Amino acid sequence: MLIFPETKFDFCGDEYIYAEISKEMRIESNFKAISITNELRKRNIPGMIEVYPSNASYLIRYDPNAISPHHLLDYLQEIDQQKSDRSELYFSSRIIEIPVWYNDKITKRTIEKYQHLQPEAEGDDFSYVMKANGFTDKEDFIASHSAPPYFITSLGFKPGTAWGFPLGVPQRQILQAPKYPSPRSYTPSEAVGIGGAFTVVYPSESTGSYQLIGMSAVPVYDPGQSLPLFQDSFFLAKPGDLWKYRPVTEAEYYNIREEVAKRIYEYRVKSIEFSAEQYDEEGMRYISQLMEGF
Amino acid sequence: MLHILEPGLKTTIQDTGRFGYYHMGVPPSGAADKYSFLLGHALLGNPPHYAGLEMMLTGPVIEFHKKTVAVLTGAPAKAELNGEAIPLWEPVAVSPGDILRVGRIEEGIFTYLTVSGGLATPEMLGSRSVCFASGFPGVLGRKLLKGDQLPLNEPLPGVLRQVGKSVPEESKPVFSRQLDVHLVLGIASERISDEGLTGLLNQEWTIHSESNRVAYRLHGGRVRYKKEAAPFGSGSSPGNIVDIPYPIGGVIVPNEEELIILLNDGTGGGGFVTTGTVISPDISVLAQAKPQSNVRFHAVTVEQAFQLRRQKELFIEKVKMSVQQA
Q1: CB of A25 less than 8 A from some CB of B
Q2: N or C: which end of chain B has fewer CB atoms below 10 A?
Q3: Residue A46 forms contact with B (CB below 8 Å)
Q4: What is the pLDDT of residue B228?
């Protein structure tokens, strides 16, 4: 059953309303956030400037000279109640394969530079995360991380950064990692990071606080729209998509990079209809069915 | 056209921002001190969304290739037109071949140049503002460089009548190293102990040198978290939350001895305890504060936030009315 706690609304300064569906990460909170924000976007309300779904919350930016914040709050509360119906939680989506060189040499160089920020990791984020999750064998850890598809719950941080949450994994088996206590000032483009229960691919060079465990061989952001998959959007990720990480060797990594550079790389993509209701009822069985032939 | 003869330290094109893509990780960008920027537009009778130049710490040298009217606003800077000193906050008529030189900015960080009709540089996702994080082409993705030529729109009708006007002294922003900043508490405030909230509000914070248009970092106080387990999926530290869409102005507490306040080049999507949001008029004030300045925070209700916002809006409206009456 999908039962939601009462959403907590907060005014933030004079231009935002923040809605917290749940404090803890629950995938159904994200289904609800996506559903509500899709509806708000469709209604195209004057004075609503940004509509931003996140993992278990959403944020609205508004112009207080165009819409009364109190009226807006009432309106949001009304939609929130309507959208607790699980039959609304349904998306057209895609499964996209992301080849990853785990435990790579590129992120290692970065991590060593920022070792002082978290001495307890001893300059090795991969082993730090592996041990924190009770693994002793590197290949076992890689197999565990790359087995489930990751549901894209939201984007943010830098253009194209998307959070992925593993589907079909019992909560106590979900891999988790602490974040850096103070952020790094640099992270290489396409580094794969894990923070909390989420995995991200850094779309461009940036600051960052997730533990770096590998490098994606493919870009996830292409403002020049040079690769065919980016023709409609600068951003690979869409909330509601599923990403499947595939472990590759150093050699495969560089072979794919070459294809990307020549703009001939073709992403492996499968279109699906994702039903939260079916996921809720069938769990892992539903995920295996979606992943069939992928 | 504006011909950039010397670019200055970091001169960028800005308007009031890029909206509708924040949920894809695209920051709003836009003038850091929106208040000073909008006063410039008000003085010229420009609509608020027009683009101008934001100049940081050391200004540029610019040759005008059009007869138009321009005004400097924002942080006080030594400025010369063809070698003669010109004041800020006063529209001046310029002709082709005129050279504007903006020198060092002593107090504050940003000075603005707005021109009647605005810049006619390209737009991306609905805005002309530069976005460094985006990889956008040309001047949309970088600071201005020597030799840049920026097209200008035609000056607006009647703008010559604005030459020599000014804004009332009371509406000019104050540039100080002692700041009062107002915030509305909320978001994940419940994760901060009572003692921690007192620490936030009663202690003096100092702006760290590692501060920029993305975020300001502050040290000097201490904000204690509540001693409770972080929620599932957030990470394991008491400062972690499940990642949220940070609002611009969000007051983030990544550890007990640091505050991060998000400015216009910031984005949502972060997993640190966030305890409130700086009100929009004070974001302009904060963005102009030099490192080592001291900040005191004051918690306000959302109603008080609207009143403070309204005061600043009225100042801008008064200037607009004086322009229309001309």
Answers
A1: yes
A2: C
A3: no
A4: 83
B161 vs A212: CA distance, rounded Å: 60
| pLDDT over threshold 80, residue B65 | yes
Q: Do A196 and B302 touch (CB under 8 A)?
A: no
Q: For B249, name the nearest residue in chain A, comparing CA atoms only.
A: A13
Task: Say if residues B6 and B145 touch (Cβ distance below 8 Å).
Answer: no
In A, minimum Cα distance to B183 occurs at: A13
Output the six-digit token pair for B229. Answer: 């387990």
Q: What is the pLDDT averaged over residues A277-285?
A: 89
CB contact under 8 A, B19 and A59: no
Question: CB A57 to CB B277 under 8 A?
Answer: no
Q: How far apart are CA A272 and CA A275, in angstroms?
A: 10
Interface of B with A in 223-242 (CB under 8 A): 231-237, 239-242
Q: What ranges do the domains of chain B cover?
A: 2-174, 178-310
Point out the residue among B267, B269, B306 whose CB comes nearest to the CB of A64: B306
d(CA B286, CA B178): 11
Which pLDDT belongs to residue B323?
Answer: 82
What domains are there in chain A, each with its CATH number? 8-85 (3.30.1360.40), 92-290 (2.40.100.10)
| Most confident among A82-86, B239-243, B258-262, B320-324 (mean pLDDT) | B258-262
A209-231 pLDDT tens trace: 999 999 999 999 998 888 999 98
Label each residue of A45-58 as H, E or C.
Answer: CCCEEEEEECCCEE
Q: Nearest residue of A to residue B252 by CA position?
A: A182
CB A52 to CB B245 under 8 A? Answer: yes
Q: Which of residues 39-58 of B touch A (CB under 8 A)?
A: none
Select the residue of A13, A18, A223 nearest B279 (Cβ to Cβ).
A13
What does the pLDDT average to over A130-157?
A: 96
State the residue for tokens 């509601």: A240
Buried b (16+ CB within 10 A) or exposed e, B277-301: bbbbbbbbbbbbbbeebebebebbe
pTM: 0.90
3-state helix, strand, coil in chain A (%, to 5): 35, 30, 40
Give pLDDT tens digits for B238-291: 888 988 999 999 999 999 999 999 999 998 888 899 999 999 999 999 999 999
pLDDT at res. B326: 56
The chain-wide mean pLDDT, for chain A, equals 93
ipTM associated with this complex: 0.95
Does domain B178-310 fall into CATH 2.40.100.10?
A: yes
